[in-house]
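[step 3/7] fold_predict: job queued, chain A
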Amino acid sequence: MISWIPLAPRWLEDDPELRARSTAAAVDLFRNGMAKRPETILELPRIDVTALRAPRGNVFSREAAAAMKTEELLRTASRLFNRKGIDATSLDEIGAALGATKGVIYHYLSDKPDLVAKCYRRAFDLGDRILEAMARFEGEGVARAAAGFRLLVEMNARAEFSPLAPLAGVEALKPDARDEITALARRSEHAFPAAVEAGIADGSMREVDLLGTGVALAGTFGWIPKWFDGEDEERIQSIADEFQRLYLFGLKAR
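[step 4/7] structure written:
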C-alpha cells in the first residue's frame, strides 16, 4: 500500500495533495480500519466470484468463438504484463504462452499499444462488474463495501481473471487511447468511494477521506499478481481474508 501511493498520480496528474491525502488515509486505515462498530461484524462478508464471469455465449457461434479467443489473448497478455512489465514482455512471448504465432495475434489487434489499451479496457470492465455486484448486495454499507473490496482482491489473485494492474504503460499508448484510459481510471477512483458512501450514511463505517483511502487501498491488491500465481484456491481465500480484515479492522487488536 505504501509503495503504491507515489504511483497513483500517474493516473491523474502529478498531485502532491493527493499523495498527502493518500498517505494520511493509509496510516488511518492501518490504525483503525473502516468499520465503525467492528464488534458487530461476526463473519467476513463476501460476494460470490461468479459475479465476475461473463455469461457464456453459443460456443458454435463464430462471434462467440472469436470473443473467447480475444478474452484468452487479453487475459494471457495481462498476466505476463503484470509479472514482467509491459516493456519487458514481447508479442512473441505472449504468442508462445498461447501456443500461437505473432501473426495470429495480429489478427486480433493492430500493434502492441493496441493490445495494452484493450487489456486496460478489460480490467475496467471487470471493475464495473464488481460495482454492479455491490449494488445488488444486501446489508449494511460496511458489509457491502467490504464484500466489494474482497472481490477486488479475489479478481487480482485469481489466474482466471488476471486484470492488467495499473502500474505502468499508459504513457506508451496512442493519444486517443491514453485519454480514454486515463478517463476510465479517474472514473474508477471516484466510483468505488462513491459506492461505499452508504456505509458512512448508515453509521456502519467511520468517516474517512474516501478518495485518499481508495487510492491507498489500490496498493493492497495492485501488487498481488507480482508475487502470486493465482492457482491455489486455499491460498486465494487466505489472501482475501487477510486483506479484508485489514480493510475492516486495521491492525488493532479485536
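[step 5/7] annotate
DSSP finds eleven helices and no strands in the chain.
Residues 112-136 form the longest helix (25 residues).
exit 0
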